[in-house]
TrEMBL record, chains A, B:
It comes from Hypholoma sublateritium (strain FD-334 SS-4). Belongs to the class-IV pyridoxal-phosphate-dependent aminotransferase family. Its EC number is 2.6.1.42. One of its GO terms (cellular component) is mitochondrion. Keywords: Amino-acid biosynthesis, Aminotransferase, Branched-chain amino acid biosynthesis, Pyridoxal phosphate, Transferase. InterPro entries: Aminotrans_IV, Aminotrans_IV_CS, Aminotransferase-like, B_amino_transII, BCAT-like_C, BCAT-like_N, BCAT_family. The keyword RNA-binding does not apply. GO terms for biological process: L-leucine biosynthetic process; L-valine biosynthetic process. The modification N6-(pyridoxal phosphate)lysine is found at residue 165. It catalyses: L-valine + 2-oxoglutarate = 3-methyl-2-oxobutanoate + L-glutamate; L-isoleucine + 2-oxoglutarate = (S)-3-methyl-2-oxopentanoate + L-glutamate; L-leucine + 2-oxoglutarate = 4-methyl-2-oxopentanoate + L-glutamate. GO terms for molecular function: L-isoleucine-2-oxoglutarate transaminase activity; L-leucine-2-oxoglutarate transaminase activity; L-valine-2-oxoglutarate transaminase activity. This is Branched-chain-amino-acid aminotransferase. PROSITE patterns: AA_TRANSFER_CLASS_4 (PS00770). Its cofactor is pyridoxal 5'-phosphate. The lineage of its organism: Eukaryota, Fungi, Dikarya, Basidiomycota, Agaricomycotina.
Amino acid sequence: MLTIPWKAGAGWGAPEIKPYGPFALDPSSTVLHYAQTIFEGMKAYKDANGDIRIFRPDMNMKRMNTSARRIALPTFDGEALLELIKDLVRLDQHWIPTETGHSLYIRPSLIGTQKAIGVGPPNEALLFVILSPVGPYYPNGFKPVALYGTTEYVRASPGGTGAYKLGVNYAPGILPQQHAAQLGYAQNLWLHGPEHYITEVGTMNMFVVFRTDDGGYELVTPPLDGMILPGVTRDSVLTLARDHLTQKTPVAGLPPKLTVSERPVTMQEVKAAAQAGKIVEMFGAGTAAVISPVDRIGYLGEDILIPTGEGGMGPIARAVWTELVGRQTGAIPHEWSVVV
Amino acid sequence: MLTIPWKAGAGWGAPEIKPYGPFALDPSSTVLHYAQTIFEGMKAYKDANGDIRIFRPDMNMKRMNTSARRIALPTFDGEALLELIKDLVRLDQHWIPTETGHSLYIRPSLIGTQKAIGVGPPNEALLFVILSPVGPYYPNGFKPVALYGTTEYVRASPGGTGAYKLGVNYAPGILPQQHAAQLGYAQNLWLHGPEHYITEVGTMNMFVVFRTDDGGYELVTPPLDGMILPGVTRDSVLTLARDHLTQKTPVAGLPPKLTVSERPVTMQEVKAAAQAGKIVEMFGAGTAAVISPVDRIGYLGEDILIPTGEGGMGPIARAVWTELVGRQTGAIPHEWSVVV
């Protein structure tokens, strides 16, 4: 693991790569009482040549600094941290699985370690990076997930912290997730306001594909309005689709008649479109599953059925997923994939 | 310090009282990534006879269990934990200051310690209690605080976690607090909705005293609507005032013409009442300061001035504070004060 201590006044201390093992944390440490913690998630892949690849790590470094500022933790040189992460991954490269769809998960975290019971900016912090091999989300073909359109709890609200990758956005979601599971759904689809705007799924951003009246498609995701995490996979899906439309980088399988929209979507719109047969598909986008098709949304006591296409995945999602995974694993050469 | 480990299946392990020292926490521990932490704050006093007293600890035990349930941490036997806390306080009683207004702060915490990068109910947790002597908030007489009516950030929202004493409610407030301090205010007064309803101050609940048209007083605090922490001091102020009105337990200095209201209050109401000379005083109520008078609220670019009475504290606050501190320290015998 990689550790870098920070102290007010002195700044960042010497980075150290050392064997994985427990931290000695004072019982009064800020993180243990006031939830002063942020994190990121990235994946390292081995490509066909045996090279190690990480996907758009600059985005994670940038977001982690944005998170740090929001929760009064120290910011850092993102490029320098990335070089250290590369060192760590190179050292531990025998842990990167070579099977298709497998990867090495990279978890950078930054915690407040001030030894004092007082709520304020900490005078000590610890940045650390740990690694873990992970298998594919769908080892046996895509399995669409059922989401629970949650009206009892909220994940985020205007003026809150939903747009930042802070620890505080996660533990409060466990109880709602248990409720959703009891009702037979895999995850919570977080809604906002009396209109029940779709926001995100906690571990994924959401995309809806509508069939348009002119026989084309509209690929919609809710806008970054302060309540939605700016996902790296979300941005990749949008950029990939837009670059396809401008012919900058055509994507195999994506239709030419495609509108890409960042706009609000209500549950009512999804429900009406589903009933009218105008929904092509819905999917989540995140680092863990990359693309995750949705086949059902529980909403106010009934199920809205969503088409999923052949093999559990619709046409847009499949084209996007194929292109994304190709770029991530190095099968499709692209600047997003950084060789370590 | 007191530590009690918990494991799924096995339940709570053996409590241990041992010297204060660091925890060995696995870098993947849930608390370090997903903010799975709750806490409480209590104070132990030495009375004139040398007896140790804790104030309404049953309320803290109950609230801590409510918090645990909300964030998928294990619940516990509150009475049993309280007995263990008493053992710890007895053992460390030489740390309880005897000077007026000083006390021993008691901090119980419960953290998720599962060793795995996955968001879910943890299979391991750790309950611990640490102690620290604390001085009075106002060693040299009351110093009223200026609050910043915050419209840029929110602390809580409907369906969120504001009514629970979770770590997640604290670290996100540090940045707003820094902004408030830059503008010359001591703390954020958290508002809700376009009406700017007064909620709380993060470390204190809020009370406003209005002068009524019949020459009496209305003591108002916002209702527990899911966005406000159910403070022990808040409940004590309300109960004490209500018991005074019914003559169950008259409180010296409180007027007979007093209405006690748990009702919504907007900033507009406070502003208009302040301008019309109808505000008697405002104060915060919490474990740390007990009662904290407010003399100024920054709101939408201007300052609303609040009267504070003689010696920095208004008439209702002073009577409430005198009675509360009397009961806490044992000077006024009352069942709320538990002898350890």
